[in-house]
Amino acid sequence: MLIGYIRVSKEDQNPDMQIDAFKKFACEKLFFEKISGAKTERAEFDKMISILRPGDTVLVWEISRLGRSAPEMIKIVDEWFKMGVGLKSITEPFVDSSSEWGDFLAKFFLLMADSERKRLIRRTREGLSSARARGRIGGKKKGLTAAAMATAKNAVIFYNSKILTTNEMCSALKISKATLYKYLRYEGVEIAGWVKTPNLNRD
């Protein structure tokens, strides 16, 4: 049975986009709650846990929705895999327990994402402080869909880990090399060995 779990924080955007995405996967059961990840009590999550059986698969928007910290989420994923419960992520296609590397990639990504999240929060705060000092206000980047932006964030995490090759990153994210580089540049990542081609037709 495919079971969907949606958790958004009270500060999150309208959850309709996520709900619409889950409907496309035709989940037999869907659990939704609007609550901060820091909360220890998650009624809907606990309800979902209580009905899980071997052969079930849990579908999430992103695996960070499963818990408050990387160690906690890795423990959850580990327990599910031992039970025979699968895990899939809509915005992280490499997180798929049915694939050969699904278990490893899920745990690896959780560890890297936790570190990268803290680094991004720090850089964002520093950037906003600098922008305010110059009289500018930070804003949301434009040009990518929400799902593409999530993939772009994941691409940065994989790239900065320096563990996977370019082909392995593309395979895990299910994107082409051109798209990978596009996403990395979108996120402001300096790509080793990549040189922007000058526009020779410019007047």
From TrEMBL:
GO terms for molecular function: DNA binding; DNA strand exchange activity. It comes from the Bacteria. Keywords: DNA recombination, DNA-binding. The keyword DNA-binding applies. It holds the Pfam family Resolvase. This is DNA invertase Pin-like site-specific DNA recombinase. The keyword DNA-binding applies. InterPro entries: Resolv_N (IPR006119), Resolvase-like_N_sf (IPR036162), SSR_resolvase (IPR050639). Residues 1-135 form the Resolvase/invertase-type recombinase catalytic domain.
